[in-house]
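Researcher: For the record, we're logging two predictions in this thread. I'll number them. Prediction 1 follows.
Model: Prediction 1, sequence and structure:
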Amino acid sequence: MLRSRNKNESKSLPSPNSRVSFQLPGILLIVGLILIGVVARFLPYPPNFSPIGAIALFAGATLGSRLRAALIPLTAMFLSDLWLGMHTLMPVVYGCFLFNVWLGSRIQSRLRPLPIAGMSIAGAAFFFIVTNGACWFMSYPVTWTGMVSCYTLAIPFFQNTLTGDLFFSGVLFGSLALAQWRFPALRPVGLANAHASVER
């Protein structure tokens, strides 16, 4: 009897790649946290210490649709770039944030500290490799020496990117988890149904 119940419970739990959806209160909370993150981009920070990478990861992990999740950080980035200044690497940078959205979509049903931190580190590393590869190609001699020089000079910026992504991911995901703990109605529908099934 106990073995049968455990089997049913395991079927009720979401798989690591399953998508979860939020009801209106949860969606409003998520959008509100994202808007706060967008506003935070205008605050004075060290270079590359920015909330946009974390916003992209957070949107991908919580908004269900990858298209909807992608539009939010790209729109936020474009509007802030209109204010802060355009640059030639914008397409490359935006592509990196789309990758963060995809990373976030891989942990939709596993919003726990370790997967979030892992995806934040992966996103920061991808951003460092891709954007500095483009910078090397456009602004440095396309030689081994030029590449080494480009990536070496960019290490302090990578430290800021990594720190910023981890910090703002902690703020966004932590705020969501705290609110869900206090108000169960904010939990995603898929996980709420799974917990209800297990309790039965």
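Researcher: Logged. Prediction 2.
Model: Prediction 2, sequence and structure:
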Amino acid sequence: MIVVIESGAVDGLEGYGVRVEVDAGRGLPSFQIVGLPNAAVRESRERVLSAMRHQDIPRPSGRVVVNLAPADVRKEGAAVELALALGVGLQGANRRLTGTLEGAVVLGDLSLSGRVEPVHGMLAMVQALAEAGRRRFIVPAQQVEEALLVPGVMVAGAHSLDVAWAWALGRSAVPWRAGGRQLPCRSLSGRGDRGPSLLASTPTNLARLAVVAAAGRHNVLLVGPPGGGKTRLCRTIAALQPPLNTIEALDVLRIHGAIQIRNSPTCMPERPFRAPHHTVTRSGLVGGGNSMRPGEISLAHHGILFLDEINEYASGVLETLREPLEEGSLCVARGGGVRRWPARFQLLAAMNPCRCGWLGSQIRRCSCSENERARFRTRMSGPLLDRIDCFAEVVDGEVTLRGAATGSADISRWSAVGGDVAAAHAMLRDVEEDLAGVRSVMSDTAARLLDEVRTAWGMTVRSLLRCARVARTIAALDRRGRVERADVVEALGWRREAVLQTTQGDP
């Protein structure tokens, strides 16, 4: 008689089903696990046997073979341990799985004493197996709330192995709970409640850039001397982010839950804010390695990737940002296989204008030669810069407006942030919905201006579309579905062709 219990595992960010097949027969006492288990799964044998002994659960006296199917997929993690212990115990008791636990998916790690511990990737596994038709799940008691986020499933939480053993034998009823629990909306807390205070203490032109970038989730590059306020502005943009909706929140929970254990999510998570050090490697940024672990790009999905001193990052590392900035996902091919991971993030970056950092500053004169400045600027390629929406030269806490091709009179609209910063949060939430549901119409004068500037500046089609997207955000902030010339003027003022030319030499 072979006992079969359904379980699961995680591959990168995706969950998949694992069928635990347990066979016991005559022979010298032994315990073997097959089916491409990794080191953590092979070590499950000792934990399972110790847990069964402490919980007085019988085990077969002869040879035990456990197969983890499908046999050609490498198994990682310890989510199969609870199912493994139940299967071995049923063989020792010469019993079959009975009652409502038959056909259920059993997930959980075991301590030596038999306590059921949380596992990585719970939400990813339950979502994937629910899509495959599984409806009942036994999970660690600490992760019941997480599993209940998936609609259409029945979930029960086990504190210890003996509780699950009683359910397997039909000695007690399984306390099923229906899934589909809604995440409560997050009030302004943590990083979010600092938005109004940061915005109120920010100079007007910087505040305008922060509002536009946060509303449209535009990629931003800030150039300026050290101590000019670049990092502070990026953190202001992060604090102004609208809250996640339910679908986005589930994505964030699934991705981060596959990396680190999250117990009982009781409210919506905040948008991720990832700030890797400039020594980060390619695999650290995009993911990969022997375990095909997702990198900082995927961990920033639906949030912000902040690269401070972006010119200090290796050029080969920076170039890996091209595909995810354009597609919102990335395909990683390594020896362990091919994975496509989500990567729809907002890029916020800051850099000094030269090696010494003082080009354009009124505090200290730049000591770099023109050749040194040129080499410093070429650390970022043109195709990568083409994927950034807004550029600003920040000097001593102010945005330098030089280089705007259409004059400063129209730029006066940048001061339209206003003093009611509490209303800015509600405005940003509404604007995100407007941008998703309204296709802005561009006026003839606005379209004509874009065509003229494209020819004069030699803008690519990608640059043109990104500029139009910024103009659409500006129109939506004014509750208008039509993009006017003034919106395009403001959007053009944030283009790199208008800003980066001011770093070519001392003013």
